[in-house]
Specification:
Structural class: alpha+beta
Distance between the termini: 33 Å
Number of helices: 14
Shape: flat
Strand order of the largest sheet: 10-9-13-14-16-15
Helix content: 25-40%
Number of strands: 19
Mean pLDDT: 91
Radius of gyration: 26 Å
């Protein structure tokens, strides 16, 4: 038994556990076990009934608002379990501060996270907050309404229906993001040569409508990843990277990113791939697996998402990742998706990129075709290799980006990208 993000051990009772109660109530449910030392050994608590009452009193006296929790005692080991449920009325404060878990540590949140907790507790979104502007112009947005939906007159009623104006008749952040000029970050595009130290082109698109950001990013993409192929009297456009995949990745980045931090969507263009990095991790309530499978249950920016949907920039909520994968169905190297706490990265390889691997590497990749997910032991057994050779080949394929691994320790399995 080991500590984790949702499990903490306490050998005895000190007020430090109250920080973890705040963390679990703010950022996902969890359990604190009293009477367990840092190594996971059961040491028990003397007079656990009295201590349970003490725990309750400390929580009720110190955490505001009062969190949801339950306490139980294992009579065989005298270990006390305190189960804290993620609450609805955030932030949950201990001595005026909110906390969160990061791996096995409990840390105070920063001002950005505290503001997000406050909005969540009030069932509000950052995009719905007043932007502070009395007047906004929507020339570019109006042109897109006319082009996509045939709406030629943009008035306050339409802006209110779209969610750009609040009930108090004030423009909100969503409205500002679609306006011709705003104070928000945008998309930073860099085209690299042989290394990241050699920048061939740089273009930053910010302070303008996010629809213009999207269109200009696609324009840069076409400049470098499309070419005309003439065959006889026929002329056709060839994509080095599927344009549909790039469009989906940029739309996802704009719709799902966090807008309350001063950070651009980063687009890094290389000769063999494009990397798109979006600020902000997954929206709350969505796991990495759900994201990759196309199950979006909780939009971070519902107004922005709804407008992109209405204007046909996205087809359905949550289908973007699946659509990106589908465009690479026949490509030798597939897209890759990296999810961290603070960002989401999409890597789109060129479709003509060849797999450069040894004969042993090719055999391993062939074994992992069709979505097979195997451990190193299973691969070694199927190919008749030693464990050392199998690990050596797998590490080479990992470094080249042809496979990725899931899990850790004995539970590690390998999957072809």
């Amino acid at each position: 038994m080991k500590e984790s993000r949702s499990l903490e051990f306490k050998k005895d009772i000190t007020n430090s556990f109250l920080k973890t109660v705040s963390a679990f109530a703010n950022f996902g449910s969890g359990t604190i076990l009293f009477g367990v030392d840092d190594c996971g050994r059961l040491v028990g608590i003397s007079d656990p009934d009295k201590v349970c009452l003490d725990i309750e009193n400390r929580i009720n006296d110190s955490i505001r608002p009062k969190p949801e929790y339950s306490i139980s005692v294992n009579r065989r080991t005298n270990v006390i379990s305190l189960n804290v449920t993620e609450g609805k009325y955030k932030p949950y404060l201990y001595k005026g501060k909110a906390y969160r878990r990061r791996d096995t540590a409990t840390l105070e949140v920063d001002q950005v996270e505290l503001r997000r907790l406050t909005l969540e507790g009030e069932n509000l979104y950052y995009e719905g907050l007043p932007c502070g502007a009395d007047k906004l112009s929507f020339s570019y947005f109006s042109s897109k309404l006319a082009e996509k939906l045939g709406i030629t007159l943009l008035n306050d009623d339409i802006l209110r229906t779209l969610g750009f104006i609040n009930d108090d008749k004030k423009y909100n952040n969503a409205g500002a993001l679609f306006a011709d000029n705003n104070r928000f970050s945008g998309i930073d595009i860099a085209r690299f040569g042989d290394s990241i130290s050699k920048i061939l082109d740089r273009e930053t698109i910010s302070g303008v409508s996010i629809l213009k950001q999207y269109d200009e990013a696609v324009s840069v993409f076409r400049r470098y990843y499309q070419y005309e192929l003439v065959q006889g009297v026929d002329r056709r456009t060839v994509d080095k990277i599927p344009e549909e995949a790039f469009r989906e990745a940029i739309a996802n980045a704009l719709v799902h990113r966090t807008w309350d931090i001063n950070s651009h969507v980063r687009v890094a263009m290389f000769s063999d791939r494009i990397e798109i990095i979006s600020p902000g991790g997954l929206p709350k309530g969505i796991t990495g697996e759900e994201y990759l499978n196309g199950s979006i249950s909780n939009l971070r920016n519902p107004v922005i998402g709804n407008v992109f949907f209405r204007l046909h920039y996205i087809e359905m909520f949550g289908t973007g990742i699946r659509r990106i994968k589908e465009t690479y169905a026949n490509a030798p190297i597939k897209p890759d998706f990296n999810i961290t706490e603070n960002s989401i990265s999409v890597i789109l390889p060129c479709v003509d990129r060849k797999i450069e691997a040894s004969s042993d590497g090719i055999k391993t990749l062939g074994l992992l075709d069709d979505g097979m997910m195997l451990s190193s032991r299973e691969i070694a057994d199927k190919l008749g290799w030693s464990k050392d050779k199998t690990i050596r080949v797998l590490n080479t394929l990992l470094a080249a980006g042809y496979i990725h691994k899931d899990g850790s320790g004995r539970g590690t399995k390998y999957l072809k990208r």
